[in-house]
Amino acid sequence: MQKDPAILSLTDLATLIILTAAAFAHGALGFGFPLLATPLLALVMDLRMAILLTLIPTILINLVSIAHERHWREALRRFWPLPVSTMIGSLISTQLLLSIDPQPFQILLALVLVAFLLLERRRGTGPERQVPHWALALLGLSMGLLAGLINIFAPVVVAFALYTRMNPALMVATFNLSFITSKSGQVLGFASRDALDPEVLGLALILLPAVLLALWIGIRVRRRHGGASYRNWLRGALWAIAVLLIIEAW
Predict the structure, then answer these.
(1) Residue of 103, 111, 96 lying closest to 144 (CA atoms)
(2) Is residue 30 part of a domain?
(3) Suppose 86 and one of 57, 140, 142, 239 were both cysteines; which one would form an S-S bond, judging by CB atoms 3.0 to 4.6 Å apart?
(4) Structure confidence at residue 7 (pLDDT)
């Protein structure tokens, strides 16, 4: 996957702004980096390049999250089919992303954003439901397929949390593990097709200090003021991005 250096030079500033804004949102809310960064980047560049640019920051952000998570061992013991099948699904769908024109996936990306926004406001109540391992594996496979194609599987996470009513802390740990394995599948998929473009990865590394600084600032803001108001801003931004993606793809 080769890119035109002139195009990259025109998108450097936009990429910096998008990645740092998404990192700040993730820090302020506790989630949201690929959810915000991927569709914004897809508005200014090829979807495959957008996904590749977010790989390194997303892996690092989720490793930091897991390192500070006390429930990851229990999550791995109880829900291990999810991260395993997520990696398989993302590996498969990354191959598809690299084989055909990714432009139609912008519509899928917009629809997934809308699904997330509609589901995110719902709340599940009642006792936790148990899910068999085979169902977890199918769920993880669907998450991985979405991750490989559009870099986002948040609506599946929200729907699963609503159905099972699982403990929020355990849910965060489980899906942080799944985010990491989905990224592993994407890396393997890009590598198997010799599509790990060193220039794109180099840009991601150059911008990484700014991304981590924005993440740190967002975390400090959340600790001082909470994230409720920023959640409303994120909802508004995602609705606007979904509309723009549909218009551009049309």
Answers:
(1) 96
(2) yes
(3) 140
(4) 46
